[in-house]
Specification:
By secondary structure, this protein is mainly α. The protein contains 14 helices and no strands. It is elongated, with a radius of gyration of 25 Å. It starts with a helix and ends with a helix.
């Protein structure tokens, strides 16, 4: 039978664990960090093997109440009631027996790889080149389905404004899936699509997708009261004007079969590059100001956006240098510059679900 001293010590440890967990649920580092000075001062002199002095225990209980009040009434992202917050803390401190695990990142990558392999098993597309052109989009399509599921299944206990931001990100991901799907459909139905694939397919879909994601990331940043040139309409407009001017210059100088279609595709690629760059910079801003529960997912979102930015530059370079982008070059471009960003976005969504649902 534990004595009273041991019971008090255990209660004090539970109290500090509760405070650490409550702090981990918050979103804004600048709001929470100063509040934790009390915890730092108490734990700096406490060995954990004896009960806390009454004054220290009272200070920690006051801090616990302040953190709960912040999460219920002031946190920019979370939406708790006293009851739901207490239940969340209880489940953390006294977790129930583990249920069957849902699909994780490795599982989604495995399903994506299976979809890519199935492209080589389609009986009425004998060309190896055709199968290669199908496999990468199939991989990416299943990957973006996983992204949407990870994000949208993670948004309980979050405010409607954040749900809206991630709805934009997920909407962009769906459009990205349609972009990959159109390669598969056109290839199967029209054997390559002729002129549709001459300049890399309907790049406008990818542009719309990343612009929607960029809009969602900007909403996310504004919920944390962050501002930046990369989030402003003026900043985006200036970059867009520069991208369109570059498009006109290249189209005039480059001798191609269909200059209007080439110019439209190039314009979409340049706008896509701008949206990816601005999205990356905005995600990095969130990463620098968010708490640990959000930094992992945002860091990978930042890497995804920057990976997309560099992929766009490479994709554009191939188009401008070759004067076309279909067949084997298109297959290589999708495999090299689309599959890695999709893997990064998938891990970002998985990290968000994993870290915010603890």
């Amino acid at each position: 039978m534990p004595d009273a001293t041991a019971i008090l010590t255990q209660q004090d440890k539970r109290l500090t664990d509760t405070i650490v967990y409550l702090a981990s649920l918050s979103a804004s580092l600048k709001d929470i960090d100063p509040m934790l000075d009390t915890l730092r001062m108490v734990t700096a002199t406490w060995d954990g093997s004896s009960p806390l002095p009454n004054t220290d225990r009272d200070a920690l209980e006051k801090l616990e109440a302040e953190l709960k009040d912040y999460l219920i009434n002031h946190d920019p992202l979370r939406e708790f009631t006293p009851q739901t917050l207490d239940e969340r803390v209880r489940l953390y401190l006294d977790p129930p027996p583990k249920k069957r695990k849902s699909i994780n990142y490795a599982g989604m990558v495995g399903l994506s790889a299976l979809a890519a392999l199935l492209a080589f098993a389609i009986p009425y597309t004998p060309s190896l080149g055709t199968r290669a052109l199908l496999s990468s989009p199939a991989f990416c399509l299943v990957g973006v389905i996983g992204v949407v599921w990870f994000f949208l299944s993670s948004l309980s206990n979050f405010k409607p404004e954040l749900k809206k931001a991630f709805t934009w990100v997920s909407g962009g991901t769906v459009v990205l899936g349609i972009f990959f799907m159109h390669f598969v459909v056109v290839q199967l139905l029209h054997g390559g699509g002729g002129q549709l694939f001459r300049y890399g397919g309907l790049i406008a879909l990818a542009t719309i997708a990343v612009m929607l994601m960029y809009g969602g990331v900007v909403m996310y940043a504004r919920l944390l009261d962050l501002t930046s040139w990369f989030m402003s309409f003026k900043g985006f407009s200036v970059a867009t004007a520069g991208a369109l001017a570059l498009t006109v210059g290249i189209t005039v100088l480059r001798n191609v079969d269909q200059p209007l279609y080439f110019g439209f595709t190039l314009a979409c690629l340049n706008l896509l590059t701008v949206a990816a760059l601005y999205g990356a910079r905005t995600a990095k801003l969130i990463y620098n100001h968010a708490t640990a529960a959000y930094t992992t997912s945002v860091r990978w979102l930042y890497i995804f956006m920057f990976g997309t930015f560099y992929g766009c530059i490479a994709y554009t370079t191939m188009l401008v240098v070759l004067g076309y982008l279909n067949g084997a070059p298109l297959s290589a471009a999708i495999a090299l510059f689309a599959v890695p960003p999709v893997l990064l976005l998938l891990y970002s969504s998985y990290s968000f679900k994993k870290e915010t649902n603890k």
